Structure formats: structure tokens, C-alpha cells
User: Fold this.
Amino acid sequence: MNIVCLDLEGVLVPEIWIAFAEASGIPELKRTTRDEPDYDKLMRWRLGILKEHKLGLKEIQETIAKIEPMDGAKAFLDALREQTQVIILSDTFTQFAAPLMKKLGLPTIFCNTLNVEPDGSISGFTMRTEKSKLATVKALQSVGFDTIAAGDSYNDLGMIQASKAGFLFRSTEQIKSDHPELPALETYDELLNAILRAL
Assistant:
């Protein structure tokens, strides 16, 4: 049996932190997992900036409410879910992802959780498990699934490389040049066709 594992940000929806960086006027927050391989380091740095500017969950959720899926993302996901099971594996947080899942037709998502204080400030984060995308793919394989994976960032490489078929989607030139062995696709039609061929 096959199951498709997709990244969220940069693949189906725009990068949340980039949108918030633009909305808040804090350009440093544009740094993402496309730039920084160490997710823990990246998140601690982000939380430090939020604290410095006295920003919390409310302000970020106001930006997320205005984010729409990428053009063609929902149609791609609908077509894919007609053919096979799909799980979105993301290093985002439940407090960020919930409104976006409604706009994508409520697909299954595995992600992490923010630690939010009563005043709305974000004091930390709880990761579902270490190397959560790779760990999830391995767990699915351990119960009899063949996985097919696609993503755009450093933190997607583990699940892509561990799957029976894996694809970079709208990735950076640096990641593509570092991993020429991985098919690099740019359109939803290309990705859908590649996944269907791999099923």
C-alpha cells in the first residue's frame, strides 16, 4: 500500500513566517528551513525576535487568516487524494495550520505544538518527535506502507530520501544542486504525474 507524504509550506501554502515578516515589517523573520537546516536553532531565533518585538500568537494568526493556498494547490491535493492516501508532514504548529487545513479541504496533517502563555506570548514549542518527517515515514513503512514524499526544504530531505520515490518541489537552487539525484519539479501537474507514476 502506498501513502504520500507532503510538506506544507512552500509546497501547498506560502511560507507563514515570510508572510508574517512582511506583515510585521521584521525582515529577519524571512529566514526559513530553505535557508537554515537546523530547525531547533531557527525556531529559538524566531522566538527571540518575537519576544524582542512583544509579538505573540494573536498577531501571527491574524496574518495566517489572510493566507490562501498556492494557486492550484487544492485542485492538486483533491486529485491526489482521489487516487491514494495523503498525509501532510510539517514542522509548523497546530495553532498555525488549522485555518489553512480548512482551505485545503481538511487533509490529515501531522505537525508540532507551540507553548502559548495566558497573555498570548509564545514561550516555546514542543516537537512531535525528533526528525519528525523522517521518523513518520519510517513508522509508516514499519506498518506496511510504501511512502512517496515531496518537499522543498532541508528538513524534507530525510523523508524524500527514505521513500520509494521522492521529489523536490519548487526548491532552492542550492538544494537542487546539492541533490542532483532527486527529481526537481516546478508545477503541480508535474508533481501529480510523477507521484501517480510511482504508485
Remarks:
- The chain has a mean pLDDT of 96.
- The domain at 2-13+70-198 is CATH 3.40.50.1000 (Rossmann fold).
